[in-house]
Amino acid sequence: MYSLNEVSLLPSMHPVNINHRSEVNPFDENDKLPVFVSPMTCIINDDNYKLFKDSKFIPIVPRNIMPNYITPNDWIACSLQDFEEVFMKYDLDELHILIDIANGHMERLYKVVKEAKSKFPDLKLMIGNIAHPQMYIECFLAGADYVRVGIGGGNACSTSVKTGIHVSHEYMLRGIRSARAAINSNKAPKVIIDGGIDTYDKAIKCLALGADYVMMGKMFAKCQEACGYIVQKLPTKRAYYGMASEEGQKDLYGKIIRPSEGIKTTVPVDTNLHKLETEFEAALRSAMSYTGCKTLEEFRKNVEWEYQTISEFNSYYK
Q1: Do 215 and 36 contact (CB within 8 A), yes or no?
Q2: What is the pLDDT of residue 27?
Q3: CB 139 within 8 A of CB 131
Q4: Distance (Å, whole) CA 198 – CA 221
Q5: 9 in a domain, yes or no?
Q6: Would you say 52 and 273 are in contact if contact means Cβ atoms under 8 Å apart?
Q7: CA 52, 30, 69, 197: dihedral to nearest 10 degrees?
């Protein structure tokens, strides 16, 4: 396995027919940047959801929160139990739902997805998280539309150090490329890399290695618009924690219900949504122009990469 830090993207081997980065299109079919905002209660609540919705990013409403600005095309998160016991009782066509669980390898999840998609063919379902490339095929067979990839890599997640379960994003994307080739279907689930994407280059590398989207938490927690509580005023710092942490469990359930697999830390509040989307869009456009890719589809399929030596690693990260 190699980490994203050990990967370098290569520019095009041929002269590029792109004179300016404004000629490339870094947006998806909905004119959004390929970035989901992690459904964390220290980032999004009912008061600030519309601010995130109006940005160029794609927010997901955290579990147990239901803002007044929800429309059928918005993403909402729920637990597997709530999806089975509550959501399945309603007409789910045209809704976009993330079944938000940590272990996307449970057989129960795939049975529920098959049932839901058979009843509501227009329902958009995001599932995961998975940490084995072969599970991507299971997601496809179940009928999932999107799959979150990554276990233990989040900046506020302690699953790996507590359980030993971990896989690199580079390894997963290599495996999923092979799985997609075997499937050879336009209905293959879209891939969302989730966990530890805390710099622009990591996000861009994931896209170049084949991801359709990335999901970020820490980057958005640093924004002025995030809802996490302030723990220090000068310089301003905000509490940041995973949903499996004790703090996250209190937000979801009002109490701690299981041993924590997340941590609570702080992040500087040193940016805002407009600055984040402007800088990320510019960085992605630049990467696409270097590699001669005018669309995200080209960028996901045509970029070459190599692994770095320790010397190059030190040169890269100044």
Answers
A1: yes
A2: 98
A3: no
A4: 10
A5: no
A6: yes
A7: -30
**206 catalytic residue (yes or no):** no
Return the SS3 of 165. coil
| Model pLDDT for residues 142-156, shown as the tens digit of each residue | 999 999 999 988 887
Q: Is residue 199 in a domain?
A: yes
Judge contact between 147 and 128, C-beta under 8 A.
yes
Residue 290, C-beta contacts closer than 8 angstroms, at least 6 positions apart:
9, 11, 12, 16
Pick the catalytic residue from 42, 78, 139, 157. Answer: 157
Which residues does 220 contact at the CB level (< 8 Å), separation at least 6?
Answer: 37, 38, 43, 52, 57, 226, 273, 276
**Does residue 125 sit within a domain?**
yes
Residue 71 to residue 83: CA distance in whole angstroms: 18
Nearest-angstrom CA–CA distance, 113 and 89: 14
**The one-letter amino acid at 195:** G
Tell me what pLDDT residue 208 has. Answer: 98
Q: Would the pLDDT of 35 be above 80?
A: yes
Q: Which residue has the tokens 């702080």?
A: 266
pLDDT tens digit string along 198-221?
Answer: 999 999 999 999 999 999 999 999
131: domain CATH number is 3.20.20.70
pLDDT digits (tens, 9 = 90+) for 93-123: 888 999 999 899 999 999 999 999 999 999 9
Instruction: Quickly count: other Cβ atoms within 10 Å of residue 114's Cβ.
Output: 14
DSSP 189: P
User: Tens of pLDDT along 247-290?
Assistant: 988 888 889 988 888 889 999 999 999 999 999 999 999 999 99
Structural domains of the chain, count:
1
Q: Report the distance separating Cα 194 and Cα 108, nearest Å.
A: 22
Round to whole Å and give the CA distance between 158 and 37. 20
**H-type alpha helices, the chain:** 49-53, 80-85, 107-119, 134-142, 159-163, 169-183, 200-208, 218-221, 246-253, 273-290, 296-302, 310-316
What range does the domain containing 208 cover? 21-221+272-308
Q: Classify residue 158: in a domain, yes or no.
A: yes
